[in-house]
Amino acid sequence: MTKRFGPFAGREWIALLILGLLLFVVFPTTLDVFRLNLVGKYLTYAFVAMGLVLCWGYGGILSLGQGVFFGLGGYCMAMFLKLEASTPEATKIQSTPGIPDFMDWNQVTALPWWWEPFHSLPLTLILVIAVPVFFAFVIGLAMFKRRVGGVYFAIITQAIAAILTILIIGQQGYTGGVNGITDLRTLLGWDIRTDDAKFVLYFVNGGLLIACLLIGQGIRISKFGRLMIAIRDKEDRVRFSGYDVANFKIFIFCMAAAFSAIGGAMFALQVGFMSPSFVGIVPSIEMVIFCAVGGRLSLFGAIYGALLVNAAKTTFSESFPELWLFAMGGLFIAVVMAFPNGLAGVLHKHIEPRIYRLFGGLRGSGTTGAVSSPHAAE
Amino acid sequence: MIGDYTIGEFTSILAMQGFAGLILFSVFVLMALGLAIIFGQMGVINMAHGEFMILGAYVTYFCSQFFSAYLPGLFSIYFFIAMALAFCASFGLGILVEWGMIRFLYKRPLDTLLATWGLSLILQQFYRSVFGAREVGVTLPEWMLGAVNLTDIIEIPINGLFVMGLTIIITVAVYLIMFRSGWGKQVRAVMQNRVMAGAVGINTKMVDRITFGLGCGIAGIAGSAFTMIGSTGPTAGQLYIVDTFLVVVFGGAASLLGTIASAFTISQAQSTMEFFMSGSMAKVLTLLTVVGILMLRPQGLFTLNIRR
User: Fold this and answer.
1) What is the tens place of the pLDDT at every residue in A180-208?
2) For the purposes of burial, counting CB atoms within 10 Å of the CB of A34, is it exposed (0-12), middle (13-18) or buried (19 or more)?
3) Contact B117 A147 (CB under 8 A)
4) B191 and chain A in contact, CB less than 8 A
5) For an interface test with B, which of A64, A106, A143, A163 has the most B Cβ atoms less than 10 Å from its Cβ?
């Protein structure tokens, strides 16, 4: 193990510094507000990817339903913003003023009871985390206590993502259907659609991201983190040593859900709408690829993975829409077959040794403890 | 009297709804059979299964075009030839995929899931670029059109009957191949104990490859049958993949009987509930029930009692 100063090893401090510079200096100074907002949107996926690093990379639990938690977080936020945008004055042309416009279009005449809590911001902020974590807890409790894992867990989470999407689309009057909740305007009277607001929100997003990164790192280096690796590699042996494996798995799964939910809420704030197309099977699997491209064992990698894949997606689908799915498919296959540790693995294996050779004296002492071989990651 | 219907009408509606469920059941069984072989026997998660099915459907479509243009005399039997070709095409692609991709990933089942998802994206875009984004439908030969009238109200479409008959034949064939032939014995031996199977002289790599190919080939036939009752588009496969996985998992992964039983339960539940509520709610309720039961009984409905 390398020597650690505080929560990070030496080389990780450098990585944190580079990331901080990139997020808070380079991007804001070089990009216009439109592009910066786009980067902010990509970074909301980095929350999900970091959650997946913890839960898939370290815990060995592949969840194909992270979109569910991203979506729930996003919908909670969007419901608050929507209620604020649908004051009786703003909606007086509707047959029932004071309820969101899509409800009015679908002949719903009163606000359903489960929309009521979202009148209050503090309650919303709690619910943004609480609802997805509760869901994750129930799913985790049911599955891990019965020792369902691996591919079965992946398939069932995928089915849950499918169910939620169908439900949201089907219950158009209460959820906005396939269009989602659109036309979000203000947060406590502060217009979130202006350039200034987008600029501020970008920084809030970046700050939260770094906070989550620190939490994730804290988990990684703690005794708990070491136990997660042990569970991933030899679950039975940990169980026989007297640990209740299921509780650890439930915790890490809830943690990943909380990260995703924060990402979802920031997404709704920055993009100004939320729709089922960020919930279902396809987006959920794409979130896994963000994590896999960055490196499933690296929290930093997850952030870069989310940024790069999304930037590539935007560029490709702007200029060569037909090629995008080929590129995406190829990426899935390449990452799995050739680079199971993603960008972080490539950096670690091929680029770092050269840098060290370049600066002769600076000896990096091999691997950081946590980047252990993932051969038993399944 | 039940609601606005008389008892007679009500039973007829139930029968019709049940029959619609049977057609859905046939499609589920055909798709799930291939998956039950690949996932249940080999433990490989093939997310591109739907795309193999669509390949079969496109082959059938082109056959129907070809026969109506060049061999109109033989048009009434084109479907059988199309089915054989569909099997060959999917079987061939399956072998190729196993050779190029799957064989490196047997020890990493979660990674096969991601890699085959990538493959499914590529195939989808390939179909879209080559065959166009439009949905296509085949022309059915004369004898498949129309319906059998059982009573005044109950009508049973012939193409539905045909698909059901086909399902029975394929299921029996798969059963014979997997559980009554020497080759099936080899497959099961390899899956239960690879090293020992190799030691007694079974070519395990070849068995892997053919098994995967066979599963894909059956998906091709499923796609072929699918054209009889619906139209085909590049993304049609993705719509069914999660349902099919649930069918296989729900039935108990390694059990053929379980797969059939769970396909029957799920399809009947869905089509019966569709009568009482909207289609999407019926689907949500069905899936929720299945997921709920799986949480209580993770091993599925039927299990094989083998010592591991």
Assistant:
1) 888 888 888 888 888 888 889 999 999 99
2) exposed
3) no
4) no
5) A163
